[in-house]
Design brief:
The protein has helices at residues 13-42, 44-52, 59-87, 89-98, 101-111, 118-127, 130-143, 151-180, 184-187, 190-203, 214-218, 224-254, 260-263, 266-273, 275-285, 287-307, 311-348, 352-391, 395-417, 419-426; strands spanning 4-5, 206-207. The chain is an all-alpha fold and 433 residues long. It has a single domain (4-426), classed as MFS general substrate transporter like domains (Growth Hormone, Chain: A, Up-down Bundle).
Length: 433
C-alpha cells in the first residue's frame, strides 16, 4: 500500500496552518532519522581505516579506503535526487534505508576475516557510498514540503540531522570497536537501519505534486547557476565531509600518541549543529553575503591549521574549519531555492505556476549540486593521501585548499554579490540570494 497526497499547497497560509505544518514536520522528523543513518554508514570507514593500523597498509592506502565512499556517494547523489519525484519520497526513503544493510553487513563480514585482500576492502568501502546518496534524495524530497520562506530553516535542520551522523560514528565507534572488535562497526547499525525503514514506511508521505519527468529535472543541468553553486558547494560541503572523514586518520598520522579518537567527533558535531545557523543567517542577511565572508574565514582557518605546533593547537584550528564549513553549508543551500524561484518568476511571472516550477527546478538542482559538492570529500582525502605519499606531510594539500577557498570567495563576489555579475548570470539583480 502506498500513500500519496494530491492536495499539497504549503505556500497557502490557510492550508499550511490547518494541515501542512503538521504533515511537513512529521515527514521532516523521519527524513532526518533515515538520513542520519545514511551518514553514519557513509563515514564508517573514517574510523575503521584509522583503527586498522599502518602495519597492514600504507597511509596512502588507508586514505583510499576513506576516500572511495565519498567518490561513490557523490556519483549516487544524481540518480538519488530523481528517486522521490519518480517513486515518491516515502517509498524511496524506505528503499534507500534498506540498501544501507549492504555496506554495514559487508564491512562486518570482511574485517572479521583475517587476511581479507585489500581490493575486497576497497569494494566494500565503495558500497558505503550508498549512504552518501541518501542526502540528495532526502533534501530533494523535503524541499517540496515547506513554503518558500521556511525552506532555509527546514533544509538546514534536515541536513544537520544527517550530518550529525558523522559525529555519531566518530563518538560511538571507537568505544564499540574497543569493546567488541572491528566487525561490530558494521553489525551495530543493522537494527537501527531496519527501524528507520519501518518508521519511514509508517509515517512518511508521497507528494503527487512533486512528481516530475527526468527530462524536466535534467533541464537544470543547462543552467549556469547550477554549476556555479556546485563549485561553491565543493568548498562548503566538500570540506565538511572531507575533513570529517579525513581528520581521524590525519590526526593519527601526525600525532600518533595524542587522544585523537576521543575528540574526533567534536568537529563533525560542531559543523552539523551550526548548519541551521548558516541557513538562518542566510534567510536574514542573504545567502550570498554570508557565503562570501564565510569563505574568507575558511581561508583563515587553513592558515591556523598550517601554523599549529601541537596536537591541541591543531585540533582547535580544525574546529574553525568545521565551524565555517557548517555555516557555509547552510548558507549555500539557502541560495539554491532563492535562485531558482527568482528565475521562475522572471520566466513565468509571480504566482502558483512560478512557485511550482521554482520548487521543482530547485529540487533537481539539489541533486547535481550535492553530487558535485560531495566529490570534494573524495578530493580532500586523496589530496591528503597523495601529499603524504609524495612529501610525507599534508602541507601541500592544505596550501591547495587555501587557494581554492580564495577562488570561491572571488566567484561568490563576482556572480552573486556584484550586481552586474548577478544580472549577467540570470537576471537576479533584485533577488535576495
Amino acid at each position: 500500500m502506498t500513500r500519496w497526497m494530491s492536495d499539497w499547497r504549503p505556500d497557502d497560509p490557510v492550508f499550511w496552518a490547518g494541515t501542512g505544518r503538521a504533515v511537513a514536520r512529521r515527514n521532516l522528523v523521519f527524513s532526518i532519522v533515515a538520513e542520519h543513518l545514511g551518514f553514519t554508514v557513509w563515514t564508517l570507514w573514517s574510523i575503521v581505516a584509522a583503527k586498522t593500523g599502518s602495519r597492514e597498509f600504507s597511509t596512502d592506502e588507508l586514505f583510499w579506503l576513506v576516500a572511495l565512499p565519498n567518490l561513490v556517494g557523490s556519483a549516487l547523489r544524481l540518480p538519488y535526487t530523481f528517486g522521490p519525484a519518480r517513486f515518491g519520497g516515502r517509498n524511496f526513503t524506505v528503499a534507500s534505508a534498506l540498501l544501507l544493510l549492504v555496506p554495514a553487513i559487508g564491512l562486518a563480514v570482511a574485517v572479521e576475516r583475517p587476511g581479507t585482500p585489500y581490493w575486497v576492502l576497497l569494494v566494500i568501502a565503495a558500497t558505503a557510498g550508498l549512504g552518501g546518496g541518501n542526502f540528495a534524495s532526502s533534501m530533494a524530497n523535503i524541499t517540496h514540503f515547506y513554503p518558500r520562506e521556511r525552506q532555509g530553516a527546514a533544509l538546514g535542520l534536515n541536513a544537520a540531522g544527517g550530518n550529525i551522523g558523522v559525529s555519531s560514528v566518530q563518538l560511538v565507534m571507537p568505544l564499540v570497536i574497543g569493546a567488541f572488535g572491528l566487525g561490530a562497526a558494521g553489525w551495530f547499525w543493522v537494527p537501527f537501519i531496519v527501524v528507520a525503514a519501518v518508521c519511514a514506511w509508517l509515517f512518511m508521505d508521497n507528494l503527487a505534486v512533486a512528481k516530475a519527468s527526468p527530462r524536466e529535472q535534467w533541464a537544470v543541468a543547462g543552467r549556469a547557476q547550477t554549476w556555479v553553486m556546485s563549485l561553491l558547494y565543493i568548498g562548503t560541503f566538500g570540506s565538511f565531509i572531507g575533513y570529517s572523514t579525513g581528520f581521524p586518520l590525519l590526526a593519527r598520522s601526525l600525532y600518533p600518541d595524542a587522544p585523537w579518537a576521543a575528540v574526533a567527533f567534536a568537529g563533525p558535531l560542531l559543523g552539523s549543529l551550526v548548519r541551521p545557523v548558516g541557513g538562518w543567517l542566510a534567510d536574514r542577511l542573504g545567502g550570498a553575503r554570508v557565503t562570501l565572508w564565510n569563505f574568507a574565514a575558511m581561508a583563515a582557518g587553513i592558515a591556523l591549521v598550517w601554523t599549529a605546533g601541537s596536537f591541541w593547537a591543531f585540533f582547535l584550528a580544525f574546529q574553525v574549519l568545521f565551524l565555517t564549513a557548517g555555516i557555509g553549508n547552510g548558507s549555500t543551500y539557502r541560495m539554491i531555492p532563492a535562485i531558482f524561484h527568482a528565475k521562475a518568476e522572471r520566466e513565468h511571472g509571480p504566482g502558483e505556476k512560478a512557485l511550482l516550477h521554482g520548487r521543482r527546478h530547485a529540487s533537481a538542482a539539489v541533486g547535481i549540486i550535492s553530487a558535485v559538492g560531495a566529490f570534494g570529500g573524495f578530493l580532500i582525502n586523496r589530496a591528503f593521501g597523495a601529499s603524504f605519499a609524495q612529501t610525507g606531510s599534508p602541507a601541500a594539500a592544505f596550501a591547495a585548499f587555501g587557494l581554492f577557498y580564495a577562488a570561491c570567495f572571488a566567484l561568490t563576489w563576482w556572480c552573486y554579490v556584484r550586481t552586474a555579475g548577478v544580472s549577467r548570470l540570470g537576471g537576479l539583480a533584485h533577488a535576495r540570494v
